[in-house]
Amino acid sequence: MSANLKYLSLGILVFQTTSLVLTMRYSRTLKEEGPRYLSSTAVVVAEFLKIMACIFLVYKDKCSVRALNRVLHDEILNKPMETLKLAIPSGIYTLQNNLLYVALSNLDAATYQVTYQLKILTTALFSVSMLGKKLGVYQWLSLVILMAGVAFVQWPSDSQELNSKDLSTGSQFVGLMAVLTACFSSGFAGVYFEKILKETKQSVWIRNIQLGFFGSIFGLMGVYVYDGELVSKNGFFQGYNQLTWIVVALQALGGLVIAAVIKYADNILKGFATSLSIILSTIISYFWLQDFVPTSVFFLGAILVIAATFLYGYDPKPAGNPTKA
Q1: What dihedral do alpha carbons 51, 56, 62, 66 form, nearest 10°?
Q2: Are 142 and 312 in contact (CB under 8 A)?
Q3: Helix%, strand%, coil% for the chain, nearest 5
Q4: pLDDT, tens only, 31-73
Q5: Which of 60, 117, 142, 275 pairs as cysteine with 308 (C-beta 3.0–4.6 A)?
Q6: Using CA of residue 299, residue 305, residue 308, residue 310, what is the dihedral sign?
Q7: CA 262, CA 186: separation in Å to the nearest integer?
Q8: DSSP states along 287-311
Q9: Longest C-alpha distance within the chain, in Å?
Q10: Burial 175-208 (b: 16+ CB within 10 A, else e)
């Protein structure tokens, strides 16, 4: 049963990661009449959906509305300082989610997918500095290979120079800066969140409700500051269509899927899922979105990144210790 859950969670992770990147890229480059949906509002709606999903999961665990209310009151309202600790990673996650929209408005899905794996590097560095983790030789080697792979993927090519002349493809530099910033924010927020989870015994769903609460507040502040005028003119849900709701739902699902993967899968299988997602994104970007022409240098970089992902999760089995007499 546990093996089935392991592979089911990995399958869902591959589907969620690949479909989110591709649908988000398609929705940000699709030319339609009328105003395009605002990414800032999409981030807020995704946070609300995540909160509702987590409340449902807590309710399913407690099996009654009274027990649900008691848990939410005791764990959130009665522990204000514990709840406030989540404000920092929540604000960073909100920034990261907005940056992903910026990145996929300016980069093709395949390049984005590979470059975003630099979050492995930032997470590792923050884990060493904040949690005192020690990395093995294989892990340090994988980080070097990872950086080399991403450098190859970002190597300029003739096809990229031709695409840059088309204004609809956006600015590759803006997209790259957005991805790099998202990688650093993802690494820091992820390690900070992990530290909080280890220091307390609250369930991951309660923690996600707290994250979503602050994320909604920070997200609404972003809507007011950056898109307040557009919202007052055309409404909060301007430009929303069926595709937009799919993107929002997939983004809300992401955090819940990762929580399930952490529970049921190991690093090797997560690396396998990441590799599959990169391959699928590359194929679909080329054949369906037609905004990406792979080069030999890109393939070399992608292979290095995939290899680094596997190597980072590799845990060599120590030789059997001799039994003491």
Answers
A1: 80
A2: yes
A3: 80, 0, 20
A4: 777 788 999 999 999 999 999 999 998 888 877 888 888 888 8
A5: 142
A6: negative
A7: 16
A8: III------HHHHHHHHHHHHHHHH
A9: 81
A10: bbebbbebbbbbbbbbbbbbebeeeeebbbbbbb
Residue with tokens 């979050």: 119
Exposure of 60 by Cβ count < 10 A (0-12 exposed, 13-18 middle, 19+ buried)?
Answer: exposed
E strand or H helix at 190: helix 172-199
**Token duo for residue 98:** 């907005």
Nearest Cα to 37, choosing from 251, 288, 242? Answer: 242
262 vs 267: CA distance, rounded Å: 9
What three-state secondary structure class fits 122? helix
b/e per residue, 64-76, with b = 16+ CB within 10 A?
eeeebeebbeebb
Q: Please tell me the pTM assigned to this model.
A: 0.81
Q: Mean pLDDT for each consecutive 10-residue tract of the chain (325 residues)?
A: 69 85 88 85 94 89 84 84 87 92 88 86 87 85 88 68 48 88 90 80 82 93 93 92 93 75 62 78 81 82 86 65 45
Amino acid identity, residue 188? F
d(CA 143, CA 190): 18
Structure tokens at 16: 């969620």
What Rg do the C-alpha atoms of the chain give, in angstroms?
Answer: 21
Q: How far is CA 18 from the centre of its chain?
A: 11
> Tokens 């089995």 sit at which residue?
317
DSSP character for 313? T
Contacts of 147 (CB under 8 A, 6+ apart): 118, 121
Under a CB-based contact definition with an 8 Å cutoff, are residues 171 and 106 in contact?
yes
Sign of the dihedral defined by the CA atoms of residues 62, 63, 64, 65, in that order: positive
